[in-house]
Structures are given as structure tokens and as C-alpha cells.
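Our consortium's second objective concerns turning raw sequence data into structural hypotheses that experimental partners can test. To show how far this objective has progressed, the report includes one record in full. It was chosen at random from the queue rather than selected for favorable results. The single chain below, 254 residues long, was entered without modification.
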Amino acid sequence: MEIRQPETIEEFKALEKLQREVWGMRGESPVPAGLIRVFSHNGGLVEVAVEDGKIIGFTLAFSASDGKKRYLYSHMAGVLREYRNRNVGYELKMHQFLMAKKMGYNEVRWAFDPLKARNAYFNVHKLGAYAFNYIVNYYGEMDSDENRGIDSDRYEAHKFLDRDIVRPKDYELVGRITDFPEPWKEIRLGYDSLGIEVPLEIGSNQLDLKRKWRLRLREAIIQLERENYAVNEVIRNERSVYLILTKKELLNLD
């Protein structure tokens, strides 16, 4: 597998089709080829994973600022379904971090859905990003297979390229599922590090359950953000993940 930047307009156009396939876009429009090329040629970073001449995954990022610091914002990262579980996504992100550092960035940010527990595990545990800044219904109503029917809440991932993530030494599980897969009723505060349990997977046909979890998780994370917590680990088991959150002052994130 080779990771490189797209070279021809045909390759940029191929990324439109790849977006539709990766996310099951129907009524949604992909980022158009012309705009992707503009990002690539004007300070952004667009990279593709190629195997046997076929583009099987990609990342799309651009220069951004929150008014205080400059960072690379990774808007999209996707891999064709038949090539998943082969570390393609991991290799793409690690290459993106390497290139971002060469471009002078100390941080890469992106957004992910904490209700997609496998993504949370990948972003925090495998890639070593913190998660904080919860955004309610970030993209509004979405019409892709993966997002249809529920609000598009997102957690912001922060990968710092100049330091390693601080993992929790211990934690208290304050949101435990007792009637799986129904959500817990409430969480308890008062710990430096605490954990909340989320099902590893909720089927696309379980829309009512997804909506319950979206609202419960939103309520809990917003409450925890008010108390200055950030996610610094995700632990996975056979049926669920534990999102582990720690006080920001203990993570040097203040």
C-alpha cells in the first residue's frame, strides 16, 4: 500500500465516488473534486491510500485557527468497507500526523461521533487523541446511511504532536449499563477520573435506541464538560466501551 497526495483530476474525482461508498451518501452531496483540489494546492493536506492502482482510502485536511492557535483540521478520513480491519485507516492517520508536523503544526483536530464506540476507541486509544468540546447537532440533519435519523452530535478530537497523551492511572465507573443495551439513568461526579459505558454497536435498525443513547450521552458529556473533564482513554470489551474522562488540570489541558 502506498500513501501519497492525489496527482490528477481523475484521482480527485475518484474521491467523490469514494465518499459516497464509504458513508452511504444518498441525498447528501460529497465534497466536490474541484474543492478538494483547491484544498490540496493551497495549504491543505489531501492524501490517498493506493493498493494495486486503486484508491482504497483518503484523508482531507485544511489549515484552521480558533483565534488563539493554528492547527490542521482533518475534515474527512475514510476507507472502503472491504479494506477495513487492515490498519489502512490507522496508517493514513499516522501519515497525516507525520506530514502535519513537517508542515509546522503541533496539533491536528477532527470530529467524531462518540456514539460510534469503535470510532471512539480508534481515535482515543489507538491514535492517542484527547476528546473535548462536545458540539450538539454539528452538521444538522444528515442523509447518509451511517447518520440518518439522529442528531449529528460530535466530539472534537485533539492530537498533540509535541507530547504523548496522559492515560488515567485509575478510574471509577459512574455510568454502568445494568439493562443492556438500554442506557444508564444518571452518572456520579466527584472523581478525578471516571468512566461511562457505551454499547460497542447499535444496529442501524434500532433507531429508537440510538435516539435514547444520543440524548443520554449528550446530557452526560455536557455535564462533564461543565466540570472540566476530557476523554483520555477508551477501554473496549466484547459488548461495550468505557469512555474514561479525567479532569483537564491533571492532563495539562487548561
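The partners drew two points from this record. The chain has five helices and eleven strands. Helices lie at 9-23, 33-41, 88-102, 117-126, 207-226. Both points have been shared with the crystallography group to help prioritize constructs.
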